[in-house]
Design goal:
Elements: E1 3-7, E2 10-13, E3 18-25, E4 34-39, E5 46-51, E6 57-59, E7 67-72, E8 77-82, E9 91-99, E10 106-109, E11 113-118
Parallel strand pairs: 2-11
Antiparallel strand pairs: 1-3, 3-8, 4-5, 4-9, 5-6, 7-8, 9-10, 9-11
């Protein structure tokens, strides 16, 4: 059974940094795209970042220049470093695996980790 477990969430002040991690089991993180999404209360889930199996990185405009996604094939994990945090970065962050290239949807999801940014 594929499992994705996010960690690293918590509280931070505006301007600070936070690094989220996603430990993956029964699925090789290098075999397909991995992604990060987030959802703020009352909002729809939005895509944040993605890494392709070739290592290409893609970021949403809202985090471009502030987010860095990485992958550790040995540990089978992916991470998301968020710098210069803003209030609007608050929300539940989800890790996702196994992207369908035609639909763009991900097959596997973690349960999320909460990030709260305060002023």
């Amino acid at each position: 059974e594929v499992q994705l477990v996010e960690s690293g969430g918590g509280s931070a002040q505006e301007g600070e940094s936070l690094t989220l991690s996603c430990a993956v089991s029964e699925f090789a993180v290098y075999s397909n795209s991995m992604g990060w999404f987030r959802q703020a209360p009352g909002n729809e889930r939005e895509w944040v970042a993605r890494i392709s199996p070739y290592g290409n990185l893609y970021y949403a405009d809202s985090v471009q220049g502030r987010a860095t996604m990485s992958r550790d094939n040995h540990k089978n994990t992916v991470s998301l470093q968020m710098d210069s945090l803003k209030l609007e970065d608050s929300g539940t962050y989800y890790c996702a695996a196994d992207r369908d290239p035609l639909s763009g949807t991900f097959k596997y999801w973690g349960k999320g980790t909460q990030v709260t940014v305060s002023s």
